[in-house]
Amino acid sequence: MGTILMYCRLVLVLVLSSIASSQSIIKTLPGFPGNLPFKLETGYVGVDDMDDVQLFYYFIESERNPRDDPLLLWLTGGPGCSAFSGLVYEVGPLSFDYAKSDENLPTLQLNPHSWTKLASMIFLDAPVGTGFSYSRTAEGYNMNDTLSASQIYTFLRKWLINHPKFQKNTLYISGDSYSGIIIPMVVQEISNGNDEGKEPKMNIQGYTIGNPLTDHFSDFNSRIPYTHRVGILSDELYEDLKESCNGKYVDVDPSNTDCTNNLKLYTQCINKLYSAQILEPKCALLSPNPNASKLDRSSLQDINSIGLLLSQPQKPEPWCRVIPCRLTFLVFIMLLTHGNV
């Protein structure tokens, strides 16, 4: 519970700092001693015709040479996971110092491996409804991947107009997980815009994606060959699966009982593994749904209640990864419930 409260307080400070205006410079944060040693800006940008859809962002200038270093836009997956998780849990300049923190105040520390050592980064809450991005109309929440990519491109155009000194910097679109679907679409939007002469012209050089979702069939069908390749699945069962399922393990015909029975055996082999990282322990905290290890893509639906997460005792051993997306979801529910946002 202490971890969630720390996360909650820090996010609240950041978002309240930017509500009064479209952008704000954050110089200090509770739990971090003194001034931040990097430039942190938060703000909103309207991305539809009437600016009813407002996307929230965190921007951190490169700690090396902002004028010449690349500019990276970071999109967290989900869809619907706040980019704040990428900032504090993945590639940003801050992380929590759990050993020095308590339930009253988080202690923040610098991340020595932050990508902002070499690049300026925009962490964007997208699509609308993610994190602190919102719409003034109900219609604004009608969203799909194509529209989201278009709005992200609009965000970049407006952001660069408001930050002209970054217009000539090399630009990369980056992210993880579900953003593997969105990022190539955003890059295509940028390329099309450049070809059409839209301003500002973006110096797009490529994209980087970690653990990306690319295609439902390809991604999930590859799990069984991978499980065999790393020695989890026996040669015998792997060959039985290949023969009975004809190499297709997703959306299987239920009348193919040999295949479905072999898939059940496969599920038994992996049900005690943490599928996101097989070398780490699988904690009850992360998988309250006993069916979470099946071939279906995991989602927030396996969190049955907020209390389930809050009631888990925090133990130093064994170490358990806290999935930032799920924590972010719970934090925002807590904030809304208490009327703070």
Keywords:
341 residues; alpha/beta; Rossmann fold; 2 domains; two-stranded antiparallel ribbon; globular; disordered C terminus; acyltransferase activity, transferring groups other than amino-acyl groups; AB_hydrolase_fold; serine-type carboxypeptidase activity; Peptidase_S10; signal
Task: Give the helices and strands, then pairings.
Layout: H1 2-19, E1 23-26, E2 40-46, E3 53-60, E4 71-75, H2 83-89, E5 94-96, E6 108-110, E7 120-124, E8 134-135, H3 145-162, E9 170-176, H4 179-195, E10 203-210, H5 216-221, H6 223-229, H7 235-245, H8 257-270, H9 306-310, H10 324-337
Parallel strand pairs: 4-7, 4-9, 9-10
Antiparallel strand pairs: 1-2, 2-3, 3-7, 3-8, 5-6
Task: Describe the structure concisely.
This protein has 341 residues and is α/β, with parallel strands linked by helices. The chain has helices at residues 2-19, 83-89, 145-162, 179-195, 216-221, 223-229, 235-245, 257-270, 306-310, 324-337; strands at 23-26, 40-46, 53-60, 71-75, 94-96, 108-110, 120-124, 134-135, 170-176, 203-210. The radius of gyration is 22 Å and the shape is globular.
User: What is the architecture of the largest domain at the second tier of CATH?
Assistant: 3-Layer(aba) Sandwich
Largest sheet: 8 strands, mixed
Structural class: alpha/beta
Which of globular, elongated, flat, extended, rod-shaped describes the shape? globular
